[in-house]
Structures are given as structure tokens and as C-alpha cells.
Write a structure and sequence with these properties.
single chain, 515 residues, alpha/beta, five-stranded antiparallel β-sheet
Length: 515
């Protein structure tokens, strides 16, 4: 969650903002041109719901983004049947929507090519036979919305119906004036019967107060009562359906005066390397900080590098960082005091082990509130999310020193199941290979030889060395090296010290407004 930037970088639609364009469903391949190497099958744990309940799971989520109502009906029905111990129709669930079937994902730790799938013609055709039956399951609304009501009928005044729900929505509807009853007066029982006809709606009466004139009996046609009820519920439904912006209004004094210490400060230069042998000679003299993954940082012996060394904790770790006990102890022995943390758990872990913590871009800091929160958690400085535009980044308050990733093939996706392994396998792979999209762009992908987590990198590096004056106001710039050679790293460092210009680059999102 919050670690996929594929849609942002390719189409300026952010998955972190709920607008993922699902580019992973398009062809990405190593050898087979039409292969969709990033497209996973949908997860189905319907048959494991009993096991999950026994494990203590108390809440289930059914993913339904961009799915049709029949899919939701089939999924809810299957899950409810499984929880009640009744037979489940998995064929129906697969027919309404699947990508070559389902996967149990990581539940049974069975990683492999069977987790990947695409939407085939036979998948689409199979839905035709089940859609009509599934549509019947949701034709009638379930009366889940509780209402309170008040009906008032007084002589010489229009009748009035007030209806409110539990969310604070309230409507008041007025009707005709009642007439003196000639034969059959309108009784409370008749009113409750007419107003109680809520079939086919999502509503049910929790309480309904009826107030009638204490004087002479009055009459109102049942048709007018029904019209009053329908009109009130239509207005209530419209009110409930209207978009309500979520207010984010802290006290006026909270960030009214966002501190900006020095607008035109010149940023310092840092570099993150993937391997210790990637660091070029002279890097310690040219850089404010040299960042290496903790296990790689522990290999450094050069005193000049040790003085500027920062260890990087993994953004994702399934062992609570216990596998880094020895490297981190070695770093502490050598006087390294700072760790770079790309998630909140890593910030905690760095502090727990007695290091200073610096926040990395994986924390997704995109505003002054988040920056201030990271400072409160103990981050000495913060690398901002690269989903921010440059103008937005420079407007943030100086709650903690902050900078940006100013160079590098940015990580677009991090996965446990390497998408390239599906086609090429691991034998002979040096730790990095590439995948191509339908346009022929080449995306580096690999695990660096660790076989733990694989990353898909952008096909072009972010490059801003020809726009250095526009970066003034930030505290630091980080050069993010992944597959570059030491000589290439040295050239990039020099270009960011003196200025430079290159072809085949991207500006990332620094000059774009993403959705």
C-alpha cells in the first residue's frame, strides 16, 4: 500500500489518491511479446474463510473497485455461504469475473507463475450465463438505513413530514391541508400504514411519531400521504448521495504561519547507492551523505566514507529487521549514527536500536502536516514523495529539513514474486534484467541477487542537473543509483555539482499536476 507508482509515472494518475489507471494489466514482457508480466489474478480465499476465522480474523474486505454489481453480488453470496458452512458456487464466482481463474496469493506461500493471469475472451464469454441470475440477488434493496420520523396534521395547516437518518441528514416535506372528516377520518393507524410502505427502498422506520389535531377529526387522502412519503424519501436519498467534502480544518493557529527559514537556500547533495562496490572514488568528498542498504553499508572500511555513511533499512521487511542484527551492530561499532527509514516501522526500529532516523520517500510525505508528524516521530530530515510537484515541495513548511530524489530510475513497483522470473527464471540472472512495455520501453526489474523482493524501475531516469537553480529552497537533493556503474555514478555526481544536460530522461512528476 502506497508503494506503487506505476500509474503515477506513466499516466499521472496516482494510485495513492484512488485513481490508479491499472497499467499493470497492459503487456509487460521479457521475451513473450504479448505477456502481461505484472498482471496478477484476483485473490480468492473463499475456501479458507473458516481457517481465517479460527486464526482470529474478525473482519473481511471484498475488493470491488471498478467491478459490476453482479460481481459484488456473487462475491458477497459466496463469502456468506462459506461463513455459514453452506456449499459455495465457485464456478459462478469465477464466471462473473476472473483473470484465468483465481489465486490464493501469499496465503499458502506458493509463489510462482500461476499467480499471474489476464482477462481472456473465454473469461468474458463465461459471464453471460450467470449475469441474469446474479442480478436478481440485488434487485430488492435491503432496508439497512434506519429512519426517525415525525408527522404533524393540524386543522387549517399543510401536513408536515420530517424524516432524518443516523448520519444527520434531515428533510421536511409539506403537503395539502387536511379537510374536516365527513365519513372516515384519517387515523394514526392509517397514517402509519401509508408511511410505512418502504418496500423497494433501503429505508426502515426506527421510530415514527404521529401528532394529530386534538379537535375535530380530519381527513387526508391516502394518495396524498403516499406522495408525501415518496417526495420526502426522494429528497433524503438525494441528500445522502450528494458528495460531502471531508473537512480538514485544524485550528486557525495550527499551520497559519508555516515556517520558511530561508527560501533561497542552496540544497546539499546526497547519493544513495545499491551496492558498496558501486560507490566511485572521491564520493565522500563530493557528497554530504553516502547512503547504502544496511547490509552493504556494513562492508565499508574507508574512514572518509564512514564519516558520511547512512544505512538504509528495507522499505518492506517480513522479519522485523532481525536479519540485519549483525550489519547494524557493525555499523554502530564503526560510528555510523544514522539510518534511512522508508516506513513508520523502520523509523521506530532505527530509534529503538539507538540510531538517528531519517525519513525516506516511502513515507509518502506530501504536505506540511505529514512533515511535521515525521519530525515529531523523530525523523532528523525527510525525503519527500516524488509524487509532489517541485512547486509543492518548495512550499512545505520547515518543520524538518526536507529534499527530493533529483536523479534516478525511480522504483515503480515492489513485489515478492519477481515478474521476470516467470519468463526467464533465476538461473543466469545477475540480479537485474528488464521488461518491455507495448511501446518498447525498457524497464529494469530485479532483486539485486537477494531473491527476497524485486523492484520494477522506471524506464528513464529523473534528471534535473540542467535545472539546478530551480531547486533552490530545498535542503538537499538525493541521487538514487540502482543499476549504474561506478563510472556512471561519478559522471552524474559531477553533473549535479557543476550542471549538465542529457537526452532520454524524464522530469518525473516535478513539473506535472497528477490526479
Amino acid at each position: 500500500s502506497g508503494q506503487c507508482y506505476l500509474s503515477s509515472m506513466i499516466g499521472a494518475r496516482s494510485g495513492n489518491r484512488g485513481l490508479c489507471a491499472q497499467p499493470c494489466r497492459l503487456p509487460f514482457y521479457s521475451r513473450e511479446r504479448d505477456a502481461c508480466g505484472l498482471s496478477l489474478k484476483d485473490l480468492s480465499l473463499v475456501q479458507q474463510l473458516g481457517e481465517l476465522r479460527d486464526l482470529g480474523v474478525t473482519s473481511l474486505k471484498i475488493e470491488g473497485r471498478m467491478k459490476r454489481p453482479e460481481y459484488v453480488a456473487a462475491a458477497v453470496t459466496a463469502c456468506q455461504a462459506a461463513l455459514e458452512g453452506r456449499p459455495t458456487d465457485l464456478n459462478q464466482l469465477q464466471s462473473v469475473f476472473s483473470r484465468s481463474g483465481f489465486t490464493r496469493g501469499y496465503y499458502n506461500s506458493a509463489l510462482g507463475p500461476e499467480m499471474f493471469g489476464t482477462r481472456r475472451k473465454e473469461d468474458v464469454v463465461s459471464a453471460e450465463g450467470v449475469l441474469r441470475d446474479l442480478a436478481r440477488l440485488y434487485q430488492k434493496e435491503s432496508p439497512r438505513v434506519a429512519l426517525t420520523g415525525r408527522f404533524v396534521m393540524q386543522a387549517g395547516q399543510p401536513v408536515r413530514l420530517e424524516v432524518a437518518d443516523r448520519d444527520g441528514n434531515l428533510v421536511e416535506e409539506t403537503g395539502d391541508c387536511p379537510q374536516p372528516a365527513v365519513n372516515k377520518p384519517t387515523t394514526p393507524e392509517l397514517i402509519e400504514q401509508s408511511l410505512g410502505k418502504l418496500g423497494g427502498t433501503p429505508y426502515r422506520w426506527e421510530s415514527l411519531a404521529v401528532e394529530l389535531d386534538a379537535g375535530e377529526p380530519l381527513a387526508l387522502p391516502v394518495s396524498r400521504l403516499n406522495a408525501l412519503r415518496r417526495s420526502a424519501l426522494e429528497r433524503l436519498s438525494a441528500l445522502r448521495a450528494a458528495a460531502k467534502p471531508v473537512g480538514f480544518c485544524p485550528p486557525a493557529h495550527d499551520l497559519a504561519a508555516v515556517p520558511k527559514l530561508l527560501i533561497y537556500k542552496r540544497p546539499t547533495l546526497r547519493a544513495r547507492f545499491a551496492r558498496a562496490d558501486q560507490v566511485p572514488p572521491g564520493a565522500a568528498q563530493a557528497l554530504e551523505q553516502v547512503i547504502l542498504p544496511a547490509a552493504e553499508a556494513a562492508k565499508v572500511d574507508d574512514p572518509a566514507l564512514l564519516a558520511k555513511l547512512v544505512g538504509e533499512l528495507p522499505r518492506i521487511d517480513f522479519d522485523n529487521y532481525r536479519g540485519l542484527d549483525a550489519p547494524l551492530a557493525r555499523l554502530k561499532e564503526r560510528g555510523v549514527i544514522r539510518l534511512l527509514a522508508g516506513n513508520l516501522g523502520a523509523v521506530y526500529e532505527a530509534k529503538r536500536r539507538g540510531f538517528q532516523a531519517a525519513g525516506d520517500w516511502g513515507l509518502n510525505v506530501v504536505n506540511s502536516y505529514a512533515l511535521r508528524a515525521c519530525a515529531a516521530l523523530g525523523c532528523e530530515d525527510v525525503t519527500l514523495s516524488f509524487e509532489l510537484s517541485l512547486a509543492e515541495a518548495k512550499r512545505l513548511g520547515d518543520f524538518a529539513p526536507h529534499g527530493i530524489v533529483a536523479y534516478g530510475c525511480l522504483p515503480l513497483m515492489i513485489v515478492r514474486n519477481c515478474p521476470a522470473r516467470r519468463e526467464t527464471g533465476c538461473k543466469g540472472c545477475p540480479g537485474w534484467t528488464e521488461m518491455r512495455d507495448r511501446l518498447g520501453n525498457r524497464f529494469p526489474v530485479g532483486c539485486g541477487g537477494s531473491h527476497k523482493l524485486a523492484e520494477v524501475l522506471n524506464c528513464k531516469p529523473v534528471y534535473l542537473a540542467d535545472r539546478l537553480p530551480e531547486l533552490d529552497g530545498l535542503d538537499f537533493l538525493t541521487l538514487y543509483f540502482t543499476t549504474e556503474s561506478p563510472a556512471e555514478c561519478a559522471r552524474v555526481i559531477e553533473e549535479y555539482r557543476r550542471g549538465g544536460k542529457r537526452q532520454e530522461i524524464t522530469r518525473g512528476l516535478y513539473y506535472r499536476n497528477i490526479l
